[in-house]
Amino acid sequence: MNILIADSGGTKTDWVCIGTSERQFFSGEGLHPAYQTVKQMMREISVIPENVRLNIDHVFFYGAGCHGKEPVKKVRMALQNATSALEIDVQDDLTGVARAHLQDRDGIIAALGTGSICGRYSGGKITDRSLSLGYILGDEGSAAHIGKEILRAYFRNELDEHSVTQVQNTLGTDGYSVWMNKIYGSEQPNRELASVAGHVLQKECRGELLNIVTGCFEQFLDSQFRFLRPQADDRIVFTGSVANAHSGHLHRIAEDRGFDSFSVKSGVIAGLADYHG
After folding, report:
1. CATH of 3-97+270-276, one of 3.40.50.970, 3.30.460.10, 3.30.420.40, 3.50.50.60
2. Which residue among 15, 98, 129, 261 is least enclosed by CB atoms within 10 Å?
């Protein structure tokens, strides 16, 4: 049996095909049912070579926004049209990262990437979850949230001199109107905001930029994470591009709050291959 597995976030999708030969890995753009049509998602799925996707028996798709009947139906339709799979299992991305990093162990999983979310995991399922509310109302601690706070502080002249220089060196000298048009004219503003954080924070951050990052993490812990009523002895795993890029700051904040069994992990798609392999 040939199995295709996907870990899809707001920015990119990682794929792995498990069959009789070695595991085959592919990467492409993120698939999100809230922002893309079925045809657009089908186009992104074509990053997988035709000789692979037309020889698939079962797809396990874990994706951002795949929570609820309509989004799941939309993604399933795209996969049905773009692959040969007769069995298609669509789950949200939080279930995917939990299975990848916790496998069969109970604990709390938190994903900080383009967006953010967390949940309590037991028996191979998410038994309770936060409400991320998306990049406009929530997504605390995510790249989109951090990028929004960086731009807000930059254009309102709230950054120290070093932080201003770091922003200008990475984003250029484009003015207020250029950035407003770029964000509000984008089909996916969350990606534009996340890219700001990704570019500006490639170098080590300090001063006001560091305050923004740690402040966003504190907001995540005080809102979404607190919703799960975490205990000091809970096994807690953080994952996602933002969590991995700033793992040192996350560890310090977690230790300050008394969480003992805390880790930051990467490599979701490899973990999912192990889970389903």
Report:
1. 3.30.420.40
2. 261
